[in-house]
From TrEMBL:
The keyword Cell membrane belongs to this UniProt entry's keyword annotation: no
Protein name, UniProt field: Alpha-N-acetylglucosaminidase
Domain Alpha-N-acetylglucosaminidase tim-barrel: 127-458
GO MF: alpha-N-acetylglucosaminidase activity
Annotated Alpha-N-acetylglucosaminidase N-terminal domain residues: 33-112
Keywords from the named record: Glycosidase, Hydrolase
Gene3D superfamilies linked: Chitobiase/beta-hexosaminidase domain 2-like, Glycosidases, N-acetyl-b-d-glucoasminidase
Pfam families: NAGLU, NAGLU_C, NAGLU_N
Record EC number: 3.2.1.50
Sequence ranges assigned to domain Alpha-N-acetylglucosaminidase C-terminal in this UniProt record: 467-729
Transmembrane segments: none
InterPro entries membership: GH, Hex-like_dom2, NAGLU, NAGLU_C, NAGLU_N, NAGLU_tim-barrel
Length: 735
């Protein structure tokens, strides 16, 4: 294009377009890819849809839907727009829904007519998706079949800017091998597959390894498929870049290199960061991006997060500015079109360090059109409001929502319904060019993700009073007003997001204690537990009237689970009170009821694959090519969701899950051992040795992590019947 410039005026116009406007995410429509998605989503009706091209409007994605005879015409400027057109038709005209946890695709025999052409233009250039943590808390063991479903979900919900870091370890392996590092030297660098998110962010080395080469090769091939599908649907994947994290062996290979040992302070050994002032820094950044581009291509968007939950060695703005400039320069040397995509998590998680001068210095060292900021938890604390909208940088409003993949009903429904549009229309929001989803884990609380992605094609807040009835109809295939009422109760209780940062846990998943909470098992609720019961009543009543869709079954189980999880707190108080009163009979009664509650929850959750341990472990083992690899991957899978690290890990229960199998085989035995100790104390009149118990239980947990055992992968029992049975058993128990 530059060679065709004839006059200074046209040269200026081209310069303005390239440097001052947002990075274009326009992509040509690939009809074959769009028809492929339609066939995967609604195979029986695939021939009823016609795909046609439609030019973007002002650089923004656009779609149209209209009738042509007996066919439905879907127009869009790329595959994601076509997918959104399809989902608009499915949700608005056929009253269907596609979520991780319940899908309704019962289309009418005769497709509904679109009487007037639908025309939608998104106000957002970018629709970002994923968080480094998602790749482990949810995606550690995914194969291509599961990835394919997710990419379709992404397209249907308007995602066009996904983080794509699968296979990064293979790129680094190639780079370091070319630099002369041996496999033995790299053994203490690459971590196990469940920990890549924190390895990539420089928080840990080697934990859960050594990583087999077979994994690297298989996931290099998987990344090729992921990127091909994302790109042919018009998405622009964000690939990783170098931020300084190097192997421990680096200091021996390059003894003059300027390295800084740093520690995440979560129970892991030091990692090593190459000083950005060292000439090797730019060289490493260039090598990595060149190798990555040769393997996977590029869309010129690169994720790089400096000092993730680690403080820089200096808060001097000049130091931070120079650091930022050098990181960008490393990208630029390999790709002159590089745009740095930075998670703004550090500005939220360590605001004591990152004050206005430090943030401004870090950001302003990079050209405005070469950096995009992710306001990673904008629904919790909008960093843009205290940074003058990131000091002129383009930025994206994100909903973080879930931490660690914890299982709970939670969300800020009213805030998510209004805040993106309010921010979009706020003159102080600067270069707000996108919205996104940055949860640490998915496959939970589907309502929050259907709600958030609703903003993709509108500039006004979502009217929840109008939206909830439509959500109920699409999910449950019924206009049952009781279920609409139930959701209004859920909106005001579990989804009010009033006080706590993220969803509350149940004390049953905490390491045994007399306390009502533990470090990572936080039990404070945004509502009084009894306020949730009327919603449970209405769900059970609807079940009695024959409502039985996939989404309804999931929600009935989830609401029942939440009620029972909440009940653990007052039940705990009863056995604690009995123990302190030295009332053995009462203690035995309530401790037995506590254990029975755990078993009842396990029975309930066994009826839905969404809430089972077996599929998680089975998927982990399926990645192994040898018995040793299968054992390693199972150990990784068990560890992440329990201890997280070793027996003394300070992160134990951070990623706890209320899952069938885990409840009966991990949480319940811990409480049984605790109650045995307390019962013995009551019998003998002695004081229980809680310190010794803590040591014993840590050892027991570590043994469990390193055990191999198969759990069911197929649900058992009828969700509706089990929920009804537990309703009769627990509904009238006083809180």
């Amino acid at each position: 294009m530059v060679k065709q410039i004839r006059t200074p005026r046209t040269g200026f116009i081209l310069w303005f377009l390239v440097t001052m406007l947002p990075v274009t995410l326009a992509a040509q429509l690939n009809p074959k890819a769009s028809y492929g998605l339609i066939k995967r989503v609604v195979p029986r009706y695939a021939t009823s849809f016609i795909v046609e091209d439609l030019p973007a409007e002002n650089g923004k994605d656009v779609f149209e839907v209209e009738n042509r005879g007996k066919s439905i015409v879907l127009r869009g400027n790329n595959g994601t727009s076509i997918a959104c057109a399809l989902y608009h038709y499915l949700t608005e005209y056929c009253h269907c829904q596609i979520t991780w946890n319940g899908t309704n695709l019962q289309l009418p025999a005769s497709l509904p007519v679109v009487k007037e052409k639908i025309h939608k233009v998104t106000p957002y250039t970018y629709r970002y998706y994923l968080n480094y943590c998602t790749f482990n808390y949810s995606m550690s063991w995914w194969d291509w079949e599961r990835w394919q479903k997710e990419i379709d979900w992404m397209a249907l919900h308007g995602i066009n800017m996904p983080l794509a870091i699968t296979g990064e370890e293979y790129t680094w392996y190639e780079v370091y091998k070319e630099m002369g590092f041996t496999d033995e030297e790299l053994k203490n660098f690459f971590c196990g597959p469940a920990y890549f998110g924190w390895f990539w962010m420089g928080n840990l080395d080697a934990w859960g390894g050594p990583l087999p080469l077979s994994w690297m090769k298989s996931h290099k091939a998987l990344q090729e498929k992921i990127l091909q599908r994302e790109r042919e649907l018009g998405m622009k994947p964000v690939l990783p870049a170098f931020t300084g994290h190097v192997p421990p062996a680096f200091k021996k290979k390059y003894p003059n290199a300027k390295l800084k040992a740093t520690n995440w302070t979560n129970g892991f050994a030091d990692t090593y960061i190459l000083d950005s002032q060292d000439p090797l820094f730019a060289e490493m950044g260039k090598r990595f991006l060149q190798k990555q581009t040769s393997l996977f291509g590029t869309d010129h968007l690169y994720s790089a997060d400096t000092f993730n939950e680690n403080e820089p060695p200096s808060d001097d703005p000049a130091f931070l500015s120079a650091l930022s400039a050098r990181i960008y320069e490393g990208m630029k040397q390999a790709d002159t079109a590089a745009t740095w995509v930075m998670q703004g998590w550090l500005f939220y998680s360590d605001r004591k360090f990152w004050k206005a001068p430090q943030i401004e210095a870090l950001l302003k060292a990079v050209p405005d059109n070469k950096m995009i900021l992710l306001d990673l938890a904008a629904e919790i604390e909008p960093v843009w409001k205290r940074t003058d909208a990131f000091y002129g940088k383009p930025w994206i409003w994100n909903m973080l929502h879930n931490f660690g993949g914890n299982v709970n009903l939670f969300g800020r429904m009213d805030g998510v319904a209004t805040q993106p549009a309010e921010t979009l229309n706020d003159k102080a929001s600067g270069k707000l060019w996108g919205i996104g989803l940055t949860m640490e884990a998915i496959e939970q609380n589907p309502v929050m993700y259907e709600l958030m992605t609703r903003h993709t094609w509108q500039t006004t807040p979502v009217d929840l009073d109008a939206w909830i009835p439509q959500y109920v109809l699409n999910r449950y295939r019924t206009n049952n007003t009781n279920l609409v009422d139930a959701w209004q109760i859920l909106r005001k209780t579990v989804y009010n997001g009033a006080v706590i940062r993220d969803g509350a846990e149940s004390i049953i998943t905490g390491r045994p204690t007399f306390d009502s909470t533990t470090v990572w098992t936080r039990t404070k609720l945004n509502y009084a537990p009894h306020e949730l019961l009327p919603a449970w009543d209405l769900f059970v009543q609807a079940a009695g009237k024959g409502v039985n869709s996939d989404g309804f079954q999931y929600d009935l189980v989830d609401v029942t689970r939440q009620v029972l999880a909440n009940y653990a707190a007052p039940l705990q108080k009863k056995w604690v009170t009995a123990f302190n009163a030295k009332d053995s009979a009462a203690f035995n009664k309530y401790s037995k009821a506590f254990l029975q509650l755990i078993s009842d929850m396990d029975l309930l959750l066994a009826s839905r694959k969404d809430f089972m341990l077996g599929p998680w472990l089975s998927a982990a083992r399926s990645n192994g090519t040898t018995p040793a690899e299968k054992a390693l991957y199972e150990q990784n899978a068990r560890d992440l969701i329990t201890l997280w690290g070793d027996a003394n890990s300070p992160l134990h229960e951070y990623s706890n899950r209320q899952w069938s199998g885990l409840l009966n085989d991990f949480y319940k035995p811990r409480w049984q051992q605790f109650f045995t100790l307390l019962q013995q104390s009551l019998r003998t009149g002695s004081t229980p040795d809680l310190k010794q118990f803590e040591e014993n239980i840590r050892s027991w947990e570590w043994k469990w992590v390193n055990t191999q055992k198969a759990y069911p992968v197929v649900p058992s029992g009828n969700s509706v019947q089990v929920a009804q049975m537990l309703y009769k058993k627990y509904r009238n128990i006083e809180y």
